[in-house]
Amino acid sequence: MDIRHDPMLAAAGDLDTPCVTILLDRLEDNIARVQHMIAAAGRANRPHIKTHKIPAIGALQIAAGAIGLTCQKLGEAETFIDAGVTDDMLITFNIVGDAKTGRLMDLAERVKRLAVVADNDIVLRGLSDAARRRGRSLPILIECDAGFGRNGVQWPSTALDLARLADRLPGVVCEGLLVFPNNAPRTLEFFAEAVSLFRAAGMPLPVLSGGGTPSLNSLADYPMMTEHRAGTYVYNDVMMVHSGIATWENCAMHVRTTVVSRPTEDRAIVDAGSKVLTREQYYVQNFGHVVEYPEAAVINLSEEHGIIDLSASAEKPRVGEIVNIIPNHCCVVSNMVDEVYGLRDGRVEIVWPVAARGKVR
Amino acid sequence: MDIRHDPMLAAAGDLDTPCVTILLDRLEDNIARVQHMIAAAGRANRPHIKTHKIPAIGALQIAAGAIGLTCQKLGEAETFIDAGVTDDMLITFNIVGDAKTGRLMDLAERVKRLAVVADNDIVLRGLSDAARRRGRSLPILIECDAGFGRNGVQWPSTALDLARLADRLPGVVCEGLLVFPNNAPRTLEFFAEAVSLFRAAGMPLPVLSGGGTPSLNSLADYPMMTEHRAGTYVYNDVMMVHSGIATWENCAMHVRTTVVSRPTEDRAIVDAGSKVLTREQYYVQNFGHVVEYPEAAVINLSEEHGIIDLSASAEKPRVGEIVNIIPNHCCVVSNMVDEVYGLRDGRVEIVWPVAARGKVR
C-alpha cells in the first residue's frame, strides 16, 4: 500500500470538527477483502469511485487487482484520468448533448479503453455521431433494468434491438450488457434470456457487468456475469451493516463531531448536520450510528445541527466531548466535504482532497 | 441593484446540465418584498446567508435595508467578512473549543459588531475566556428552545441564570434572546415570561431575535421581537410554497436538468439526482416540482439520477429535452454546487461562485 506517511501531520485528537475521517487499516482491509471475494467468484473487479471520489484510493483499488474503474459522471472520469489512475474506464451514465459527447471523445483519446452505457437509440446515435467525427470506435454497454426501476431497457429483446442498431451505426461497438444492482429482482431471468437471444443472433457478449456492494454476498447466484462494480465497500456505512455485508468494524468512515449543547437530560446537539451527514435514509431509521454511544439515536438533522436522543443510553456525553458518527450512506458524505483525514494509530497519516467532489456534469 | 451585467455571457439555453440557475427578477423581488414585510412589522431585518452562501447576494440584502447578516458557521462569517459585505454579523451556533473561539475573536477584531449565541454555561465560559484573552467584549444572545426541539435553554428562568452568569464573567455581554423559528409552539409564552423576568431583575433585553421564512406571515403575532432572521425567502422552494409563504412564481432557484432516458411510457430519468437536489423532504412528498410538467412527480433520486413518474402528466418529455426542477429545500441545494447562474431575459447575466459552500467548520 502506498499511502503516504507524513509524520508532521497532527494527532487525530487535534482535528477540529466536524470533519470526515477514514480509518486507513479498515480501508485497506475492505479493499483487499472485496478484491478477493470478486476474484474468487471469477469476476473482474471494476470498483465505482463514487464512494470515495479520491484518485489515490482508486490507485489502491487498481494496485489490489481491479481491472479498471467505474465513474458516473464525465467530470469524475476527467479527474481520475487526469490523475493517471487507470487507462480502462467505464462511465455508467447516458451521455447526452454535444458538449458532453465532445468531452467524452477527448477522454477516449487519452486512455486505452473508455466504455460508456446507452439505454436508448437517441443516446446511442449521439455517441455514434461524436465517435465518427473523431474517427474512433467507442465500446458501449447496454444498460438493462432488471427491476430496480431506474435507467435501462426493459426487455432482453430491446437490448438486442439496440445492439443491432449499434452494429449498423459507425463509431460504436456493443461490448455487452450492464445492470444495477446485480440482485435486482429479474436479473437472473433477464440475463439468461439475453444471453440466449444474443447467442441465437450470433452477437457476442464479452462483457456482462453487475454492480452493488450488498450483492457481493450473492455473486455465485449470477454465474453469467463477467465483471462486478461495487463502490460503497471501501468505506461501508449504516446501510451496509443493515444489509449484512459489513460490520461496524468494517466501517472506515467516521464523521468526527463535537457535542455543543445538552439542552435536556436526554438530548445532545452535535455540530454535524445534514451539510455533512446528509438526510439520506432509504431503508434505515435515523441518521447515523454513534460509535461511542451505540444506544443513542441521531433522530434528526438540521443543516448544521445533529439532534441525538440519549433516552436509551445510560452514558451521556458532556458539552465539548467528541463523538464519531458512522453515516447512513458514505458515498454522499464524501461529496459534502473538500477533504478527508486518513487516520492510523491515532495519527493523521494523510489528508486527501476529495478531488471529484461536486463533479455533477 | 448592482448585479453586474456581462453581455459576453451565454444564452441560458447554452448552459450544460445539471446546473443551478437563479432567476434574477424573482430574487430581487423576494429581497424587496420581504425587506418591506419585516420593516412594516417594526423589526430589523438580519437575513440568514445559509440559503445563498454568496456575498454579492448578501450585499443586495444589505442594500435593500438589512441591518446586518446571520451566519451559522464561522467559515461562512469569515467568507462574508472577507468580502466586506457587512460589519454587523451574528453567528447563531454555539462556538466550542479554542480553535474556533480563537477564529471568532480574529473576526470580532475586523468588524464593528460580531455577536454570537450561547445556550449553556460551558459555551459561555469558553467565549468569555477567549474574549478576555483579547481584551474584548463580545455581545451574546441566549438561544432559547420554544418548542422546536433543537438547541436552546428550556425555560425563561434558565435564560436569566445564563444572563446573570454572563454579567459575572469578563468579556461577554448578554444583549438579548434568540429563538428559531419564531413560530415555535411556546414562543409567545416563553418570550412574554422572559421579558417580565428580565425586567423584574433589572436586566435589559435590547435584542429579541426571531427567525424563519414561514413565520414571515405571522410577525405581528410576536410583538416583543426586535429583529427577524429569514433565509429561504431569497430563493424559495417547494417547502415554502407548501407553507403558503411563496408561490411557484416566487421561486427563484431552478435546477436545470436533461432527460437522459425514457425507459417506460411513464418514467423519465433526468441527470440531476441527490448530488444536486438532495433527498431532503421534511413535510413534502417527492423530491421537487417540475416546472414544465407540473403533473409529473419526482418520485425518487439516486446520486446522479432523478426518477420522474409521468403517469399523471398528459404531456411527456423526450430524451434530450431540458426540464427545470424547483427543489424541496433551496438552502441545501446551494451547498451542492460550486457556482450558480443568474438568469434574466433568457441570458446568463452573472455567474456567482457559491463562496461559502462547504464551510462546515
What is the average per-residue confidence, as pLDDT of chain A, rounded to a whole number? 96
The SSE string of chain A, one letter per element, is: EHEHEHEHEHEHEHEEHEEHEEEEHEE
Helix/strand-derived category of chain A reads alpha/beta
CATH hierarchy: architecture of the largest domain in chain A: Alpha-Beta Barrel
Largest sheet of chain A: 9 strands, mixed
- Percentage beta strand of chain A: 15-25%
| E-strand count of chain A | 17
Which residues of chain A form runs of ≥5 with pLDDT under 50?
none
The coarse overall form of chain A would be: elongated
CATH fold label of the largest domain in chain A? TIM Barrel
Which assembly state applies to the chains in this document?
A: homodimer
Count of separate DSSP helical elements of chain A: 10
Helix fraction of chain A? 25-40%
Q: Give the CA-CA distance, first to last residue of chain A.
A: 31 Å
Protein name (chains A, B): D-serine deaminase, pyridoxal phosphate-dependent
Organism (chains A, B): Neomesorhizobium albiziae
GO molecular function, one term (chains A, B): D-serine ammonia-lyase activity
Keywords (chains A, B): Lyase
